[in-house]
Amino acid sequence: MSQNLSMKTSVETKDDANQDIKQQPKLYARHSLDRFGDDLFGLLLTHLSLKDRFRLESVSKQFQRTVFGSVVDICIDDNLIANHLKTQILATIAIKCPNIRRLDCRKMTSEELIPEVMNAFGDHLRDIHCTLGPNGNQWLPTFGSLVNEIHLRDSSAKHSLIHCQRLSRLQIHALSNVFDTTSGQLLVTNLKRFDVQLVVDIDNQLLAAFVLGNQSLKSVSMHTTCDLRQLSAQLSRLPELRELTLSLFPMNDENLLAECLRKIGLNCKQLQRLAVKVVSNDFTLNGQTLDALRCYPQLKRLHFLHFVTSNDALTPLRFCRRLTHLTLESRRMNAELFKDCDKQCPRLQYLCVRTDTITGECFSHISRLPALKTLKMFFLNSLSDNDLCLQELLSRSTIVCNPVVIAINRALNRLKNRANILAKK
Predict the structure, then answer these.
(1) How many CA atoms does the CB half-sphere of 368 hold within 13 Å?
(2) 365: part of which helix (H) or strand (E)?
(3) 366 in a domain, yes or no?
(4) Given this model, what pLDDT does residue 407 score?
(5) Which residues make beta-bridge pairs with 171?
(6) Is 214 a member of any domain?
(7) What is the pLDDT of residues 273-308, one digit of tens each?
(8) Measuring CA to CA, how many Å separate 223 from each of 5, 49, 209, 341, 384?
(9) Record's InterPro entries (predicted)?
(10) Does 222 or 254 have the greater pLDDT score?
(11) Based on the structure, what is the number of domains in the chain?
(12) Nearest to 330 by CA among 350, 294, 303, 298
């Protein structure tokens, strides 16, 4: 194989003061990585995994100088320390990667090993993301000031949260886990992101106290069966809220959902991402329910999951002129739903649809979206029919150059593979 070579000139000086200039053929490949400086080379190496960095460390001296310098965060899991040399492995990583600032050990199931990991990297750490179990009080008094994100797995460890003064993101399974059992004191304040799964009715007084102490919340995700009116009343008191995810079960009152969405939209003026999931087989999403979207002119991302959609469901999207991302999940979806989508969502760049079947007419309407860059389709049934619809979309000359074709081709290939697997069975 031929390579592009480059010549390099050098000057030689003799002792007799006669200068002799020679062309010396220092040859190197034009596409060799050796031509890059350490700064650019280090930037290129940021795309390597930690495992690949160790594997390629001996490729060249430039690799040895730069391959570990860009490692600023590391994820520790059970696979990395699942042998008798774990102490040596951690020490080696800590020595070779002196710039590590963020440690993520949420994938570690052996909590008793967390103190050992903390001690290995403790000198340089600035942020720690972890899962908190019953042994958290063994290391949180020392490293709690560095903890930025916690998944509280065991409620018995909740009192250790008082050591985490910089905590900004918290995931729990019940709201009572952030209150002291005896005094009722709120254990965490000034959070930025909050994720809670409430499988029973919520105490409105606890929720009110939590909201009062965490006015800085920018993202909230709640899975609940509680009174939606009480929930929306408290959520509407969060002035900084930018992202809201609600999973509601059961939910059978379209008017109540519309009322609560309207209340949140009127009070949370900075809300840009909204996701609503309803665990119900017959809840209908219609234009009247979504009329509350007129209160969300700043909305950029919208997700509606597990709905039965009516023909006019997307009509209120005309009020969300900044909408760029839309996700819909509905078992029954017809062409009328997307009839005027190009007028309702002129800035839409990303569309994800999950449904049983979809018609070629639906694709015809979707193909008119002027700014669409990514289209994701997920089908549960009727593989052959959807396959034909995708081929029909690809055959339209008006969208041949649209980047959406790439995503459609990938979806088509996945459908064909699934169909072949099912046929063999």
Answers:
(1) 12
(2) helix 360-366
(3) yes
(4) 52
(5) 151, 195
(6) no
(7) 999 988 766 667 777 788 899 999 999 999 988 766
(8) 62, 35, 19, 30, 36
(9) LRR_dom_sf
(10) 222
(11) 1
(12) 303
Residues found in the chain: 425
Q: H or E element: which one contains 409?
A: helix 404-424
Distance of CA 17 to the CA centre of its chain: 68
Under the banding of pLDDT at 50, 70 and 90, the label for residue 401 is very low
Mean pLDDT is highest, among 12-16, 40-44, 133-137, 266-270, for 266-270
- For residue 23, is it within any domain? no
How far is Cα 324 from Cα 169, in angstroms, rounded to an integer?
A: 26
Query: 243: which residues sit within 8 A by CB, 6+ positions away?
Result: 218, 219, 220, 271, 272, 273, 274
Distance CA 215, CA 195 (A): 15
Burial 119-133 (b: 16+ CB within 10 A, else e): bbbbeebeebbbbbb
- Residue 125 reports pLDDT greater than 80: yes
* SS3 label, residue 296: coil
Question: Pick the residue with more confidence: 265 or 36?
Answer: 265
SS3 letters across 309-341: ECCCCCHHHHHCCCCCEEEEEECCCCHHHHCCH
- Range with the poorest average pLDDT among 50-59, 191-200, 375-384: 375-384
Q: Which residue has the higher pLDDT, 226 or 410?
A: 226
Other Cβ atoms within 10 Å of 21 Cβ, number:
9
Residue 342, both tokens: 């190009």
Calpha distance 273→325 (Å, rounded): 9
Structure token digits, residue 97: 């990667």
Write the DSSP string, 84-146. TTHHHHHHHHHHH-TT--EEE-TT---GGGHHHHHHHHTTT-SEEEEEE-TTGGGTHHHHGGG
Please, what sign has the CA dihedral across residues 235, 241, 247, 251? positive
> How many other CB atoms are found less than 10 A from the CB of residue 317?
22
Closest CA relative to residue 235, chosen from 292, 200, 194, 287: 194
Question: Could you write out the DSSP letters of every residue in 215-252?
Answer: TT--EEEEEE-S-HHHHHHHHTT-TT--EEEEEESS--
pLDDT of residue 4 exceeding 50: no
**Would 362 be classed as within a structural domain?**
yes
Q: How far apart are CA 33 and CA 40, in angstroms?
A: 10
Min mean pLDDT across 16-20, 58-62, 71-75 is at 16-20
Q: Which two tokens stand for residue 147?
A: 């903890």
> Which is it for strands 19-22 and 10-13: parallel, antiparallel or unpaired?
antiparallel
**One-letter amino acid for residue 339 of the chain:** K
Domain of residue 384, residue span: 324-425
